[in-house]
Design brief:
By secondary structure, the chain is an alpha+beta fold. The protein has two helices and four strands; from the N terminus they run βββαβα. 30% of the residues lie in helices and 41% in strands.
Length: 86
């Protein structure tokens, strides 16, 4: 089992944003990290959604079956869990 934490940062003065995600195993040991930069200045929850999208695309390459995705963006977490529990 892996846990994948994801985040985004916006650099509006430079007209770009970055995303990153890293994985740890069940013992908390670091496994892998990925970062990317993109042009533009999205709203914070859009940048976080972009990070989630790319994490979902990236994690199958890790060859683990159980991966927990974790975000600190309340808007994204709420909207996803609300749809699951309907």
């Amino acid at each position: 089992m892996l846990k994948c934490n994801l985040d985004a940062a916006i650099f509006s003065n430079n007209n770009y944003f970055g995303i990153s995600f890293y994985t740890r195993n069940e013992n908390g040991d670091f496994i892998r990290v990925k970062t990317s930069n993109f042009n533009g200045v999205p709203r914070p929850h859009e940048a976080e959604a972009w990070a989630l999208y790319h994490a979902i695309q990236w994690t199958p390459q890790l060859a683990y079956q159980n991966i927990i995705l974790e975000s600190d963006c309340k808007t994204i977490v709420y909207n996803i869990t609300r749809r699951i529990h309907k």
